[in-house]
Amino acid sequence: MNAPLPKAPMNWIAIFALVFLPIVAVIAIPLYAMNHDFSAAAWISMIILLGVSSLGITAGYHRLWAHRAYEATLPLKIILMLMGTFAVQNSILFWASGHRTHHRHVDDVDQDPYSINRGFWYAHIGWMLRDYPAAAPNYKNAPDLLKDKVVMFQDKYYIPLVIAVHAAILLPIGWAVGDMWGVLLLSGLMRLILSHHVTFFINSLCHMWGKRPYTDENTARDNFVLAIATWGEGYHNYHHIFQYDYRNGVKWWQYDPTKWLIWSCSKLGLAKNLRRIPSFNIKKAELAMKFKYAEQDLAIYGLNMTDDIATAKQRISQEYDAFSQTLNDWAKLKEQEIQAKKTAVAEKIHQMDDKLKLEFQQVEQRLSHHRETLNQLMRNLKKKTV
């Protein structure tokens, strides 16, 4: 049982933004709609600006500043800073530093700022409504951010920037479409509330609902539905084991507009050094979890041990041994690669690289074979025990 939360002072700024403003929205928007029609332009602008503010968090606050998953030019940094400011989720410095603390102490009830083990409400929004010690700013983990002029400028002038960005975006749109109040209520108020909760889903639902294909050492889940709602951030199990990858949706078919935005910026010369986890490491993590789930299935389906189940269990054990040998081969290849780059001349390095690429392909093919064999074994095993 978790220890009770310590008493902490109320955070009145957060209460205003996260409690009072939604109450105002629930009252004001229906009242306005009863007497006026919201223009189509107001609705369209709300949808577009929801994307702008949310991507400012996902591509900027999260993947650029919190995880350094890629490098951005000064113009792109400024744009992402303004987009993130429009989302009103505190400064980059506070947000990114706190998120790094979350990754370092994930699920710890005392040190994770928004630990899901304190419950859905706490992880989703409750941790912000009081000044809990776990969420207190501590920038020892962010020396790089303290040296970033864009980050520090925003942190110093955060409130004026929030006001200026909202005025600069909402007022011209409202005037241009002839629906000032409609734009302020939908693109301003409703968009802000939706943007908040879209991000908060990462801290709450993405630690409760979904699958864990890469690791079960924390509560983070992969969930396609949440990926749609969170602009690609819903592949949270992958993210928590490979946090420095600029992609969350690592498969080509996975919905991750934040990844596509960063990739597009790199093609335009606005971003560079996009960090990617090697495919071998990803497959290794996936396969290790498949073996773990296979052992769990055997514990259930293998209670009444038959010869076929015993044989299947032995074969799975053999597959795991083969998998372990694959990992050893990979480690040796990496050591060869490192030594070649230390001692060999350029031509020899080139030849070694070509050889390693071929051998890596063979290793990955073996991994794929292991994975398919394991899947077939478990399908057959379950059929025999149903």
TrEMBL record:
Transmembrane segments: 12-33, 40-62, 74-96, 157-177, 183-202
Gene Ontology terms, MF aspect: oxidoreductase activity, acting on paired donors, with oxidation of a pair of donors resulting in the reduction of molecular oxygen to two molecules of water
Main localization category: membrane
Topology in membrane: Multi-pass membrane protein
InterPro entries reported for this sequence: Acyl-CoA_DS (IPR015876), FA_desaturase_dom (IPR005804)
Annotated signal peptide: none
Keyword Translocase: no
Domain of life: Bacteria
Gene Ontology annotations for the cellular component aspect, listed alphabetically: membrane
Stored PANTHER family: ACYL-COA DESATURASE (PTHR11351), DESATURASE 1, ISOFORM A-RELATED (PTHR11351:SF31)
Protein name per the record: Acyl-CoA desaturase
Organism of provenance: Acinetobacter gandensis
Lineage: Bacteria, Pseudomonadati, Pseudomonadota, Gammaproteobacteria, Moraxellales
